[in-house]
Amino acid sequence: MSEEIRDELRAVARDLLGQAPPGREADWRRLAGAGWLGLEVPGALDGEDATFAETAVIAAELGRAAAASPYLGTVVLGAGTLNLLEPVPGRDELLRDIANGQAVVTVALPDGDADGTVALPDHDADGTVPYGDDGGTVPFRLERRAGQPDGFQLHGQAAFIPDAAEAGHLLLLARDPDGTPVIAVIGPGEAGLSVTPQPVLDQTRRLALVTANGVGVSADAVWRFADEPQACVRRLLDRAAVAVACDSLGVAGAMLDATVGYARIREQFGRPIGSFQAVKHACADMLVQVSVARELVAAAAQRLAEDAPGDPATSVAASMAKSYAGAAAVDVAGKAMQLHGGMGYTWEAGIHVFLKRAALNRSLAGSPAAHRRRLAERYRAG
Amino acid sequence: MTDLDDFRASVRDWCREHVPAGWRQAQTGVSDDEFVRFQRSWFAELRQAGYAVPHWPREWGGGMSTAEQAVLYSELAAHDAPRLVLAFVAIHHAAATLLAAGTDEQRRRHLPAILDGEIWVQGFSEPEAGSDLASLRTTARREGEAYLVNGQKVWASGAMHADWCLLLARTDPGAPKRHGISYFLLDMRTPGIDVRPIRQATGESHFCEIFLRDVVVPASQLVGPENEGWRVAQQTLAAERGMTMLELAERLGQAGFRWLVETCRRPGPGGRRPVDDDAVAGRLAELETEITGLRALCRGLVDRHGEGPADASIVKLYYSELLQRMTDFGAEVAGLAAHAELAKPASSGWESGAWVLDFIGSWEWTIPGGTSEIQRTIIGERGLGLPRGA
């Protein structure tokens, strides 16, 4: 899609999502009807044949509206994961259901604050794969069930997984008995699986703790990556990071606009407060931060749309976008609260919704410090 | 391979062959005459390759796309090429002014001459007209076919070497302050001009005062209509800002940041490398991220021809303060050794790697060309539509 079409998509999404007050649930059926859930789903499966660059537009607009929705789990991670898998029965069906708005999905990925390396651990002498001593990056493991050659048992735990409590399908990143990262597809009611909501201060996001304690998994529910698995996992982590960075950009843009609008009309000492240099210059700094964040996020989204998995430049761009936009949105939303004065601090004004979302985004999919650590590896060699 | 890759390869080859080996050492602590000689010879080399004025229109000797310019600047910086310091105002400000508002005759007279080495200086600021530039007091009184100019200019960078000056002077003392100003091309050999260097915070003296006493400027040297000089200056300054920033941003990324990483890899007195400290590594990552954002902003600014009313101010403000943060950090990490670097290579960039001098010199970006405070006001008022102050 061209830049003009993305601009149009942005305008339509802003209009539609702006109809509800900030912090409300987005109308999932309308998102599906607009084609936004199937943006990256192939056309043959009722999708739009678009790219991450378009997914990024919707992610940013959801942030701007502070809308609650299972978009991150279902579209960014769910469809993103399915597209990276070998075509197997069930996969295409699930992609079509996502596009049509009938399936809510989540993906349990490695913790974004762990370094994201998914190097294969050394096998123990007895052939089992140790779990947890590789930084705990791959959250689940599959063990062969004694006497049942086709079946596995799933163990492991992942915390703060977006949209897991409402998902009809849980795509859990696991190591198979050979140590290869795979996706185990689990329904919510399986014996041994628990999905426990983890309420957070940001009421626009729903996160949950996913625990598997010997969940039975048949061989046809173990789906493999079509490409090199490490590169695919890295790609998913980068998608998560950039989608959350888009959300932060949207939050920051909304807060800048709200603050400028308020500073133009709110009068003190007989003048609009926006005429005071202290306020004006703070708004200018907000605009600069939003402008820089927009460039970094656009560059990362473009790379995710165009580069094949495994390109290290994509991960560099993703870490830059996430670390900058994640931190900038907190600064901007915090400044928005400050410049709205006492009114801004009230529950009713709603600035807190954006500030909490910005702060949660900063921690989701890897903190700024974790992403900078990854970037900094490149300086130490040589 | 794309055309851009081909172009990059050809610039690389050219740099390997033409960037003078060891120029940084050779140009450290040199006389003014040697600096000027070196600048002129480097300009001639670049011109021969077609690299001196890539941002000019094709018919005048330029014609590169934004992407090509970014590649050119990026490769020049990556190969530690000298910067065009002496020709800076000529190829950017003077050319932009002539192209946007000059007469055909003025263009034909000066653009080829600039390619042959004509040096320009900007005569805008005055002792009583800094941030409030429009309150300038230098007068130009019409006398027949000429103007008689009297007044004083300051912060004219490189005026002692300049052949020509971009001059703002008041032609209508009775008009509101922005409406009585005219824009002139002033031949620096005209009688009545006295140039005196000012020593700056870094110890160098490239800023000058220009005293103008009964200086005769022919009416043909007026740029744009009489009393429209403020508008001409505003337009052309905004238009050329993107061009200059494209080069400076690539420099910051390809040269400055690379040197900063090198500095951080150098073992300190205890044998420890700063880069192995997580706090240092994190700051480096933060700076690289910001530089990447700046480079994208600059390319966007040039591509969109400054479409947003405050885009040029955003880039200027962000570049200046990022340069200051980066050189500040360089000075901190480099430690006492950086304080013993008493001179930086002439012809180097704003991030020469002599970090303390670079840090002190960074105020040369946050103050001139509209201070950071003025830029924030412009961004707030023109970019965001906030009301003007009382």
Task: Describe this structure as you would to a colleague.
The complex is a heterodimer of chains A (382) and B (390). Chain A has eleven helices and ten strands. With 382 residues, chain A is α+β, with helices and mostly antiparallel strands. Chain A has three domains: 101 residues, Butyryl-Coa Dehydrogenase, subunit A, domain 1 (Orthogonal Bundle); 116 residues, Beta Barrel (Butyryl-CoA Dehydrogenase, subunit A, domain 2); 152 residues, Butyryl-CoA Dehydrogenase, subunit A, domain 3, CATH 1.20.140.10. In chain A, strands 1, 2, 3, 4, 5, 6, 7 and 8 form an eight-stranded mixed beta sheet that branches. Chain A has a two-stranded antiparallel ribbon with strand order 9-10. The longest helix of chain A is centred in the middle third of the chain and has 37 residues. The radius of gyration of chain A is 21 Å and the shape is elongated. Chain B folds into three domains: 92 residues, Butyryl-Coa Dehydrogenase, subunit A, domain 1, CATH 1.10.540; 110 residues, Butyryl-CoA Dehydrogenase, subunit A, domain 2 (Beta Barrel), CATH 2.40.110.10; 152 residues, Butyryl-CoA Dehydrogenase, subunit A, domain 3 (Up-down Bundle). In chain B, 49% of the residues lie in helices and 13% in strands. Chain B has a four-stranded mixed beta sheet. In chain B, strands 2-3-7-6 form a four-stranded antiparallel beta sheet, with no helix packed on it. The model of chain B has no long low-confidence stretch (mean pLDDT 93). The chains are: A alpha+beta (382), B alpha+beta (390). At the A-B interface, helix 6, strand 10, helix 7, helix 8 and helix 11 of A face helix 7, helix 8, helix 9 and helix 13 of B.
